[in-house]
Amino acid sequence: MTATTASAVLDRDGLDALVATLVARGRTVIGPTVRDGAIVLAELASADDLPFGWGVELDAGRYRLVRRAGGAAFAHSAGPQSWKSFLHPSRERLWSADRTPEGDVSFTAGEPETPSYAFLGVRPCDLRAIAIQDRVLTGGRYADTGYGRRRDKALLIAAECTEPGAACFCVSTGAGPAADAGYDLALTEVAGHFLVRVGSEEGAELLDQVPHHTAGPDSESAARAAVDAARDRMGRSLPPVDLRDLMGASLDAERWDDVASRCLTCGNCTMVCPTCFCTTTEEVTDLTGDHTERWQRWDSCFDLDFSYVHGGPVRASARGRYRQWLTHKLSTWHDQFDTSGCVGCGRCIAWCPAGIDITEEVAALDAEHTAHGTETD
Fold this sequence. Notes:
By secondary structure, the chain is an alpha+beta fold. The chain contains 12 helices and 16 strands. The chain has 2 domains: 227 residues, no CATH class; 134 residues, no CATH class.
């Protein structure tokens, strides 16, 4: 089967069986669930843990969990986490070293047993983000072996977007709302049922193990209509211009001073972004000095010390750090990885405490660039 073949329909019992089958196979099933006033990603014991009947209201700097009519499981926008929390964890031990009584030093690789993940409910924007991180973390000369091990064992079950949030803009990045590639199974939730498309041999074999029935034309048509409607209701969009050229031509724009006056340089946008990948290392020792560990942890280009070299940081101002983040994300990622670093999930908008909107900032840069171009002409 191909990644575009509609093959089956699951009802609620079928979804229950899908999760139960994954658990029985030893998979650690991760999916959305309600906890701490948000829809978060966590381990699921059964399909009952999914957020049936919950949705979210969000905007720039605002996120609220709300009850909604109906019992949909995937009628919510992206929460505060992305799947990189599991594939590229925020903190990971690389190795440890111990001094023996004889004075020798022994090293142990920090490679715990790799979980066999099954990700349930991966949004199309996050599918694209995972594909980007695959390229970044495993495609170069210095591959992240920990990421590679976790990614190789992960099974991806997508959930196409039928109810985009106010902060979503995946249409303008080409990352949704339909799932186009990279999944093992893709679900489209319509009226309490789930149309299933198969994207891999493993996905086909898994589907064979759960109760389902063949999808008919009406089911396929309803699923396509729901996704198309979501495309038309996207809350935001990036301006339809060449963003690589725009960012390169906007290095001296006055808009950077405007956004810097509002930006707290807290790094929230990089922490919630599903593609940001920067890390640093730290050494942790015990009081005796006989044991030490090296840990890798997330870092952010908004951190003043991130660009520190002998004599001080390269980007000491909020203006410089915000410009670095946005220009890299939308422009120079292409030079490094042949892709944009933005998938339009809207997390950076919703979880910015100052309510800074990336689409608004890019539109302002475009307007300023156009105005200066007109004056020059």
